[in-house]
Structures are given as structure tokens and as C-alpha cells.
UniProtKB/TrEMBL annotation:
Residues 109-391 form the NADH:quinone oxidoreductase/Mrp antiporter transmembrane domain. Keywords: Electron transport, Membrane, Mitochondrion, Mitochondrion inner membrane, NAD, Respiratory chain, Translocase, Transmembrane, Transmembrane helix, Transport, Ubiquinone. It catalyses: a ubiquinone + NADH + 5 H(+)(in) = a ubiquinol + NAD(+) + 4 H(+)(out). GO terms for molecular function: NADH dehydrogenase (ubiquinone) activity; NADH dehydrogenase activity. InterPro entries: NADH_DH_su5_C, ND/Mrp_TM, NU5C-like, Proton_antipo_N. Core subunit of the mitochondrial membrane respiratory chain NADH dehydrogenase (Complex I) that is believed to belong to the minimal assembly required for catalysis. Complex I functions in the transfer of electrons from NADH to the respiratory chain. The immediate electron acceptor for the enzyme is believed to be ubiquinone. Residues 47-92 form the NADH-Ubiquinone oxidoreductase (complex I) chain 5 N-terminal domain. It comes from Thienemanniella tusimufegea. This is NADH-ubiquinone oxidoreductase chain 5.
Length: 581
């Protein structure tokens, strides 16, 4: 049985690695010759009705598929050791493969119908993966994830209905010359709503940290290149409409900036290791959405790819640490891990530095370029401050994580067996670590055909570095003084609760939605089912009417002679009246 488990893991690992290199090679070819292949496959043709499946292959879809396959192969290889004690490992691997196939389907579809199939496939399989460890917490997280994503699914269905105004559901045919059309504006609004739910923008952010109930390999896959990036990728395909509808651009810029700020702020008050990394994903998604709304789809796609590399590495390192910490995810239990697990913690800190935008790592090339584009763009002061404060907060919670894992005291049990002995997991992490170092520079040369030369004044050019250093300093300062302030100050206690609850968004998504309908239903039961409706109908109907009439009928059946004589006289009277008139 164990050999069968490993054989399935190895099969999909080698298969995905092969397709990853194949798609990457094809993407270089398509990029060099500027090729786009649009393939239509007639599945069924009967009575002048054609059922067609369409595929769009260009450099963007091919390079994205290559990255998804590469990360998925390493996640499956990583799962071989991480889920070693799982009896149903084959089922888990097949669920992961179904998840990846749904994402593949979404990436190469230029058609809203086939996009919906991949979109719903992601939603369904993600629910199965979130509730994989079967307990109440996982069930609640799965329901929150599934129902939040259903809002986007319905929006996509409405967009499909509005596409009936055109001749086909292949939206790529109509984006350019129908972009000023009223129907296309409605479609764009629905697509933005769908992308906001899938990419967990405000006010749909609460499901993303809740989805941490899934196994860590799933989290590495979901938060890097699959589920949460589906919304961003869909908007990249629809980016032509952003240039026309200014109101959509402004709305998405505000939502992306607020999501980025909220996630960075709340991560500084969180103690669950996986939730901190999940909130960092949310922050980067807000960054992608906001730069996309400014009309830079290539830049958003560039950051999407670089972010996928170091975020998958972060989750893999977190999984190894959680395993060694006897399944404890609280960062307050960690400390001095560099002495016990040097290789794992080195990978964790490298991924952290890439997330912060440390020069010459993967995240630097995309984040630095995005922030410099923001500085030369025509943007209001509020959005400008949201960008730079959120960048500072990113460095802040990253250094906070470094402080708790490296500098603090080890607070778990004194008898521990912390080590770097997970050889299979380490090999997976090494593959991603290599890409997290060179991936940014490689993609920078590939994606942008011309060299970006942004000329800024000295103080603006160094503003990004200044914000990063100040964020790191603030992160360390916050850790030294946080407990003192939280115990002494009522406002600090409120701020801590407000931030750890993600601005009370999980309450708004769960309790607030169901509370009033439940109260209204209770009142309806009280006043209708147990009130006047019960009095005039149901049980009371039997007491008032049925019982009284049964008493009268019983009296008639008592064989009383006077009653018979009275009925006889009434009967004679009726006959006489009938004869006379």
C-alpha cells in the first residue's frame, strides 16, 4: 500500500515537471515570435448545432501554466513526506490533481462558459480540500469558503446571460470593439465582482484566513498560483475595459489599496503562523488588483508569478516547522530555530526577504517596479499613502516573524526533537528556493520587451528603501512594547482585538448575515405559527368548530321524540311551501 502511495505521488510529480518544462519552452517560442493560437474543437455536431470547446494559447497562458505545474509538482512531492501518515494519501493527491486541472482549464479558456467550468471546479475541489481534516472548525471554514465563492459564481452566470446580447460567449472577440457598449459595462461589473470574491478583496476577505484549515501543502498551492490568483488572471484578460470605464478603475483601486492595508495591518497582531502568511497573500493580492486597475496588466502578471514562487516556499517552510513543533502553529512557542533547523529557517527567511522586496530577490523586481510606477502615475494622495504604508507594514510583519522564529526564546517543551531530517520536504523547498532567488530577474528579462528606465528625484528613488527600513524597525519595536501597552492601555486592547478579527469582517460574513434572518424567523414563528394563526386555525379550529358541531350532532342522535317530531314538522312545512309557490 505504501509503495502504491509513493508510485502515484512520483507519477504526478514527473508528469507535472515534464509539462512544466514543455509549457515554459513553448512560452519562450510564443513570446519570441509573438504567436497566439486560438483552437476550436467541435465536441458534438448535430442538426446544425455545434458544441465547441475553445482554447487560447499565448505566451501569458503558457508561462502561467508552466509555473502552476512547477509549483504543483513540488507540492505533490512535498506531500509524499508531509502526509506520510495519511491513510487516504491517494485520495488527497487526486484532489490536488483535480484542483490543478481546474486551474489549467480556467487559464486556457477564452470562453465564459468554459471559464465557469474551471471556476466552479476550483470552488468545489477547494471545499473538499478545506474540510479534508474532518472537524467542526474545518467544516465552518469550508462552508465560509464555498458560500463566499458562490457569490462570484452567480456574478459570472449573470455575465454569461448578458453575453447573449452578442453572437458568442468568446469574450476575446468583443473586448476591443464593444468596449464602449452598455452591455459590456454590465459584464465588466459582474466579472469584477466575481474576481473580488475569488481573490478575497474587501468585503469578501474573511474566507482566506479561514481556509487555513486545509493541509499545509494545499495552502501552499492555493495561496501561490491557483485559487486566489484566478480572479486576478481573469481581470488581466479583461483589462482592455479598464481604459474605458474610469469608475471601475477608481473603485478597484480603492478596494485593492484598502485590502492591502487591512491585511498588512492585521498580520502584525496575529500569532498563528499560517494565518500570518495567509494575510500576507491577501496583502499581495490587493497590490496586484490595484496596479491592474491603473492599467498595467503585464506588471500585475509579473508580480503574480514572482509572488507564487516565494509564497509557496513560505508555506512549505511553515509546514516543516509546524511538524517539528508538534503541530503547534503559535509563533510565541517558537524561538532560536536557527540552531535546531538551520536549512528550513534559512529558506523561510529568504522567502520572507523576497516578500519584503529585498534587492535582487524575486519580489524586488516586481514590487520595486510597481512602487516606482505608482510614483510617476497620476494618483491621489490617499492611494499613494496606502501603497507605501502597506509596503512598510509588509516588512513590519515579516521582521516580526523573523524575531519570533530566530531571536526569541524557545517556549515549547524542553524535550524536543527539532531537526532538518525531512529530506523529501527539503528537496522540494530547495527547488523553490532556487527559483525565488533567480525567478524575478529571469521574468523581468522575458516579460518586458523594452527596458524600463524610470527617472525620479533622489528622495523619491530612495523612498522605497526608507519605507522598508522604517517598517522593519517598527516591527521590532512593536514586539518589544506590545505586551506592555496591551496590558496598560484600553485603546491598545481594542486595537488588538479589532485587528486580530480582521476589522470584524469574519463577524460581518457569518453572524451579521444570519443573525437578523434568524430573529425575524423566530418572530414569525411566535406571531404566526404560535400566535393568531394558531388561534383561528390548526389546533384551535378543532376546539372551536369541530368540537361544538360534534356536540350538536350527538344531541340529534340521542333518539329524542321531540326532536324527531320537530324535524317532521319542519319537513312538512317545506313541502307545503314548495307546493304553494
Amino acid at each position: 500500500m505504501l509503495n502504491l502511495k509513493f508510485s502515484i505521488c512520483n507519477l504526478f510529480f514527473y508528469l507535472f515537471i515534464f509539462f512544466s518544462f514543455l509549457f515554459f519552452s513553448l512560452s519562450l517560442l510564443f513570446l519570441f515570435y509573438d504567436l497566439v493560437y486560438f483552437i476550436e474543437w467541435s465536441i458534438l455536431s448535430s442538426c446544425s448545432i455545434d458544441v465547441l470547446m475553445t482554447f487560447l494559447f499565448d505566451w501569458m497562458s503558457l508561462i502561467f501554466m508552466s509555473f502552476v505545474m512547477f509549483i504543483s509538482s513540488l507540492v505533490i512531492f512535498y506531500s509524499k513526506e508531509y502526509m506520510n501518515s495519511e491513510k487516504n494519501l491517494n485520495r488527497f493527491i487526486l484532489l490536488v490533481v483535480m484542483f490543478v486541472m481546474s486551474m489549467m482549464f480556467l487559464i486556457i479558456s477564452p470562453n465564459l462558459i468554459s471559464i465557469l467550468l474551471g471556476w466552479d471546479g476550483l470552488g468545489l475541489v477547494s471545499y473538499c480540500l478545506v474540510i479534508y481534516f474532518q472537524n467542526v472548525k474545518s467544516y465552518n471554514a469550508g462552508m465560509l469558503t464555498a458560500l463566499s465563492n458562490r457569490i462570484g459564481d452567480v456574478a459570472l452566470l449573470i455575465a454569461i446571460a448578458w453575453m447573449l446580447n452578442y453572437g458568442s460567449w468568446n469574450f476575446v472577440f468583443y473586448l476591443d470593439f464593444m468596449k464602449i457598449d452598455y452591455e459590456m459595462s454590465i459584464i465588466m461589473l459582474m466579472v469584477i465582482l466575481a474576481a473580488m470574491t475569488k481573490s478575497a478583496q474587501i468585503p469578501f476577505s474573511s474566507w482566506l484566513p479561514a481556509a487555513m484549515a486545509a493541509p499545509t501543502p494545499v495552502s501552499a498551492l492555493v495561496h501561490s498560483s491557483t485559487l486566489v490568483t484566478a480572479g486576478v488572471y481573469l481581470l488581466i484578460r479583461f483589462n482592455i475595459l479598464f481604459m474605458v470605464e474610469v469608475k471601475f478603475f477608481s473603485f478597484l483601486l480603492l478596494i485593492g489599496g484598502l485590502t492591502m492595508f487591512m491585511a498588512g495591518f492585521c498580520a502584525n497582531f496575529e500569532f498563528d503562523l499560517k494565518k500570518i502568511i495567509a494575510l500576507s497573500t491577501l496583502s499581495q493580492l490587493g497590490l496586484m488588483m490595484s496596479i491592474l486597475s491603473m492599467g498595467f496588466p503585464k506588471l500585475a502578471f509579473f508580480h503574480l508569478l514572482t509572488h507564487a514562487l516565494f509564497k509557496a516556499l513560505l508555506f512549505m517552510c511553515a509546514g516543516v516547522i509546524i511538524h517539528n513543533m508538534k503541530n503547534s502553529q503559535d509563533i510565541r512557542d517558537m524561538g532560536l530555530l536557527i540552531y535546531y533547523m538551520p536549512l528550513t529557517v534559512s529558506c523561510l527567511n529568504l522567502a520572507n526577504l523576497a516578500l519584503c522586496g529585498m534587492p535582487f530577490l524575486a519580489g524586488f523586481y516586481s514590487k520595486d517596479l510597481i512602487l516606482e510606477i505608482v510614483m510617476i502615475s497620476d494618483m491621489n494622495l490617499f492611494s499613494f499613502f496606502l501603497y507605501f504604508i502597506s509596503t512598510g507594514l509588509t516588512v513590519c510583519y515579516s521582521f516580526r516573524l523573523v524575531y519570533y522564529s530566530l531571536m526569541g526564546d524557545f517556549n515549547l517543551m524542553s524535550l524536543n526533537l527539532l531537526n532538518d531530517s525531512g529530506f523529501i520536504m527539503l528537496k522540494s523547498m530547495m527547488g523553490l528556493m532556487f527559483m525565488a532567488v533567480i525567478g524575478g530577474s529571469m521574468l523581468n528579462w522575458l516579460i518586458f520587451s523594452s527596458f524600463y528606465c524610470i527617472c525620479l528625484p533622489f528622495y523619491l528613488k530612495n523612498l522605497i528603501l526608507f519605507v522598508c527600513f522604517m517598517g522593519g524597525f517598527l516591527g521590532l519595536l512593536l514586539n518589544f512594547y506590545k505586551f506592555y501597552f496591551s496590558n496598560k492601555s484600553l485603546s491598545m486592547m481594542f486595537l488588538t482585538n479589532f485587528s486580530s478579527f480582521m476589522w470584524f469582517m469574519p463577524l460581518l460574513s457569518t453572524v451579521a448575515i444570519i443573525n437578523y434572518p434568524l430573529k425575524y424567523g423566530m418572530n414569525m414563528v411566535k406571531y404566526f405559527d404560535l400566535g393568531w394563526l394558531e388561534y383561528f386555525g390548526s389546533q384551535n379550529l378543532k376546539i372551536i368548530f369541530m368540537k361544538n358541531y360534534s356536540i350538536y350532532l350527538q344531541t340529534l342522535q340521542n333518539n329524542n321524540l321531540k326532536i324527531f317530531m320537530l324535524i317532521f314538522l319542519v319537513w312538512l312545512l317545506l313541502i307545503l311551501l314548495f307546493l304553494l309557490f
